[in-house]
Amino acid sequence: MRQLKDLFLDKDLRVGGFYELAIQVCQSADNDPIRLYNHFIWTQKNVVGPFDINYNSIKVDTSNIEHNGILHLENYAIPFRTFNIREDKPVETGFNWFDIFFYTAAIEHIFGSEFQTWVENPKVPKPLTDFFKSTLKALYKIYPFQLAILGFEVSGQYYLDGLRKPIGNWTTSSFYVGQNNYHIVAMENRKFVTEIEKL
User: What are the distances in angstroms from CA 150 to CA 11, 45, 50, 127, 155?
Assistant: First the structure.
């Protein structure tokens, strides 16, 4: 396995798109859930970081919109990033989003070229999908978010309220909501949506 520092600093792994978990957390005026989510992620035993761009350790700070580190999964280590997007224009109607993502170049390099991510039916390593599902369940227990979306380049594409109307059949994304919000999801969309309590 490559040295973690070399892996982190390899700019060739930080290109392409993102395979991500995008979470519509809460109203923008409330930053406490983001602090809780950051604390959870960056205190996990299989997470190293966060680091600045030169691989120097930094403190987790909610005022920073992004944090970079390395995730250990089974026999793999892969760079990843958390990202907080705060919609504040206006703050009264915007949302806080918390995203976790992996660069597609890193996925293909670390897990193998068979994991093509920019094709009609992308193939994703099971350890990454399992990580995202277990993480969203854990974060939901910490603070019950509105909506989680798992897929490629999904941040900001959908909101919980948008699932009230049919979104069509073209999406490869998966959606996760709590039981308390499942009833608002249009019947046509439910084939894409999983109740978190049933994961």
Answer: 25, 23, 23, 14, 9
